[in-house]
Amino acid sequence: MMQSKSQRQDLHVAIIMDGNGRWAARRGLPRVAGHRAGVAAVRRVVERAPELGIKRLTLYAFSSDNWRRPAPEVQSIFWLMRAYLRLDSERLRQRGARLQIIGRRDRLPPLLVREIERAESATVNGRCLHLRIAVDYSSRDAITRAAADMTTAFARNRPPGFELMRGMLTRALTADGGEVDFLIRTGGEQRLSDFLLWECAYAELLFTERMWPDFDAADLDRAFAQFRQRERRFGAVSPIVLLSPDSSSGGAR
Ligand code: IPE
Ligand code: IPE
Ligand code: MG
What we know:
Blueprint: E1 11-16, H1 20-26, H2 31-48, E2 54-63, H3 71-94, E3 97-102, H4 110-122, E4 129-137, H5 139-153, H6 162-174, E5 182-185, E6 204-207, H7 217-229, H8 239-243
Parallel strand pairs: 1-2, 1-5, 2-4, 3-4, 5-6
Helix pairs in contact: 1-2, 2-3, 3-4, 5-6
Bound molecules: 3-methylbut-3-enyl trihydrogen diphosphate (IPE) (2 copies) and magnesium ion.
Residues 18, 187 line the site of magnesium ion.
């Protein structure tokens, strides 16, 4: 029987790591305590993911709209990121992870950019897990940039046809991580908040009430078990329907 895409082994999982602030508030702690506890959750998930057959993992750590937060919170998030990159890149390397930071770099503190570059080059040969962390990331910006690059490339020529344009945009936006198979958002909100809009066109979505700092390996296992139950059709008809004896024979693809 045709293998449903959810059974494939090289899966791309994306996570919107939300709920740090509320997790802290419920404990009477400052928001930064939630972000610190969130780093521990990142470690748990990064350890578990390859064991589930996840090859690509994209984590939303800081959106371009998060600049709207109070400066001290933003600074403490960047400080925690720097510490994470410094402390964890060697372990990531040993475990065969390749780390990549996606998003804009020109507005980040120079010390963080330096740490990003160091961690990326230290882990460049990792083959077990492609770990992407989105920092100062906006999917609308990424799509707009891809369209602008294409316009520049064709500035002196006739613009390409629609199909070529669509193919070029798809390649530009999925060259690194590919399309998303499964998107998880913690923290109870049910929205994408400008994350991987193009890449999630056919992603399976799972929204959980669990706050990110509480998310652990068992939560990932449960979420993944749900994903494995889903039947992905990509607009086609279920292969089960196609195989049933009384279905019409003409429509099989
Ligand atoms: C997600 O947690 C982390 C970032 C956006 C940096 P939040 O900080 O958004 O936590 P809540 O949503 O306020 O609980
Ligand atoms: C999305 O969470 C961004 C990250 C998790 C990094 P937000 O907390 O910023 O999203 P909204 O504002 O609730 O949509
Ligand atoms: Mg939030």
